[in-house]
Amino acid sequence: MKLKSDRYKSARGGASKLLAISCQTCGASICRYQKDGPGNLRRMYIDRISEANIPLTNKDFSCPNGHLIGVAIVYKKESRPAFRLITGMVTKTMFNH
After folding, report:
1. Phi, psi dihedral angles at 76 (to 5 degrees)
2. pTM here?
3. Among 6, 14, 18, 7, residue whose Cα is nearest residue 97
4. Which among 23, 19, 18, 35 is positioned nearest to 91, based on CA atoms?
5. Region for residue 94 given its phi and psi (left: phi exceeds 0; alpha: psi -120 to 50; beta: otherwise)
6. Interior angle at CA 43, CA 16 and CA 50, nearest 5
7. What is the SS3 string spanning the chain?
């Protein structure tokens, strides 16, 4: 996956990292995610998700084994569709691209 460089990345300081996202409960791989800027991973923007092993059109964001990880939202500040994550439900690993 090539990292996206756009106004959202610039607004968050221009630094990005690629993460492999897995279910904390069962360890199932969920997707690759481009995290822009510092801080905790509280929401995942749909346009930053790649190689997803689950449908991104559902209202609930669940792992392939059905464990609930988050819920679909529209982030009001930027009017961007995203998933608000439930704290502690995902494991993040730096992905070397």
Report:
1. -65, -40
2. 0.83
3. 18
4. 23
5. beta
6. 60
7. CCCCCCHHHHHCCCCEEEEEEEECCCCCEEEEEEEECCCCCCEEEHHHEECCCCCCCCCEEECCCCCEEEEEEEECCCCEEEEEECCCCEEEEECCC
Model confidence pLDDT, tens digit, residues 33-53: 998 888 899 999 998 998 999
Q: Which of 23, 18, 20, 17 is nearest to 88 (CA)?
A: 23
Q: Between β-strands 60-62 and 16-23, what pairing exists: parallel, antiparallel or unpaired? A: unpaired
Q: Is the predicted pLDDT of residue 5 greater than 70, yes or no?
A: no
Segments making up each domain of the chain, as ranges? 17-94
Q: How far apart are the first and last CA of the chain?
A: 7
